[in-house]
Write a structure and sequence with these properties.
mainly alpha; 2 strands; 7% strand; two-stranded antiparallel ribbon; 3 helices; 83 residues
Amino acid sequence: MTLGDVIYYIITDRPVKVLVPEHTEALRLIATMSNNINQLAHDANAAMLFGQNIPQNTLVALNKVLTQLDEILIKESGYGEIQ
């Protein structure tokens, strides 16, 4: 968050969200998973480009990654809030 963002939140009387150290592992996992999601999306787009069905293993892998992402977000949700 930039200094300008902090000033904006203070002026508008909105809570400022801050990253706490406990969330860094979750953010690292999400960044890693985003690469997997991009690879799966590429496979799906390539299949569709050539008029093929998306391979079942791609769909299974995508659902698995999205479920893991959902679990991480639920477990680690909520930044420390400064009011």
